[in-house]
Amino acid sequence: MLYYSRHGAIKEMAQQVARGIEKVPGLQARLRTVPEVSPDHEATAKGIPDRGAPYVTLEDLKQCIGLALGSPTRFGNMAAPLKYFLDSTTPLWLGGDLIGKPAAVFTSTSSMHGGQETTLVSMMLPLLHHGMLILGLPYSESALLRTASGGTPYGASHTAGAKSDQPLTEEEKELCQALGLRLATVAKGLHSSTHT
User: Fold this and answer.
1) How many angstroms separate the CA atoms of 167 and 154, rounded?
2) Residue range 108-128: average pLDDT?
3) Is the pTM of this model over 0.85?
4) Strand 32-33, strand 2-3: pairing
5) Crossing angle between the packed helical segments 9-21 and 170-194, to the nearest 10 degrees
6) Phi-psi region for residue 157, left (φ > 0), alpha (ψ -120 to 50) or beta?
7) What is the tens place of the pLDDT at every residue in 47-87?
8) Does residue 131 surpass a pLDDT of 90?
9) Which of 84, 98, 116, 101 is closest to 9 using CA atoms?
10) For 13, how many CA atoms within 13 A lie in the half-sphere containing its CB?
11) Looking at the DSSP assignment, which residues form a beta bridge with residue 72?
12) DSSP secondary-structure letter at 165?
């Protein structure tokens, strides 16, 4: 699982998606993040973050059997640190290392109409170029019909509020876990069928 979190909501969502993944016997979520992008062209991030998940490497993506990708919304798009990392994945694209692997996306916005769906789609685009199989949330997930906050068929989402201080609702947690479970179930099935 790869995510970027500025105020903590995406990190919490990633943990909920991980819970869903780990409901599938034999699978374990591997949480990874990306460093901030600096306006100072000479600045570099420490090799290991002070807290939270380790920084992702290309090898992490190459080894995964499925990918959950999460980012807060920035003007209806994924955040720059995540985009910056994805732009460095050309060696994986050239090698076809992600072709046929399932992927799912999740996001958080400050407001209900702050670009949740466009952000989710912006994260899907590079994954499609890599040949990944995109999974969303079907309406058989009843929380999609009950939610008054986040949640879309494109992927899990959260409405954090203007101060980014709103906790995940029960429906948002349920949808994050459902997304993780769906991703893990498909990943395990595909992996088993190609490695028997």
Assistant:
1) 21
2) 95
3) yes
4) parallel
5) 50
6) beta
7) 666 777 989 999 999 999 999 999 999 999 999 999 999 99
8) yes
9) 116
10) 37
11) 108
12) -
